[in-house]
Recover the amino acids of this structure.
């Protein structure tokens, strides 16, 4: 088993259509005054409609950083991203302003890791 693999391909049928989610060679770094942190280095994966992708890794391996990039939730003044991220055919890294706001919620949503606030059975 190779723990350093960056290409993740879910098992399932391939219809030849455009993937619902496509991430290619994603690099994310956080730039601060004191230091720069290379958080994600060259991750690639795709997910077709109807497929499920499970991302596993040690704490600090970049799982949440990668998925938050799909909604551009990192502070823009501290975050440098390269590669491509497309969701439903939209270039996430190229979106800005109202187009990005319009994407969040109706097309892309996230359930955050905090167990006490994420899965409340009342809601």
């Amino acid at each position: 088993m190779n723990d350093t693999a960056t290409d993740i391909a879910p098992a399932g049928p391939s219809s030849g259509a455009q993937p619902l989610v496509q991430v290619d060679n994603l690099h994310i770094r956080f730039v601060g005054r004191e230091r720069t942190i290379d958080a994600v280095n060259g991750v690639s994966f795709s997910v077709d409609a109807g497929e499920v992708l499970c991302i596993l890794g040690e704490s600090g391996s970049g799982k949440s950083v990668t998925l938050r990039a799909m909604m551009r939730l990192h502070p823009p003044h501290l975050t440098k991203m390269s590669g491509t991220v497309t969701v439903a055919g939209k270039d996430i890294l190229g979106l800005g302003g109202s187009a990005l706001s319009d994407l969040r919620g109706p097309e892309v949503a996230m359930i955050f890791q905090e167990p006490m606030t994420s899965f409340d059975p009342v809601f």
Remarks:
- The longest helix spans residues 63-69.
- Helices lie at 63-69, 97-103, 115-118.
- The CA atoms of residues 57 and 63 lie 7 Å apart.
- Confidence is low (pLDDT under 50) at residues 1-14.
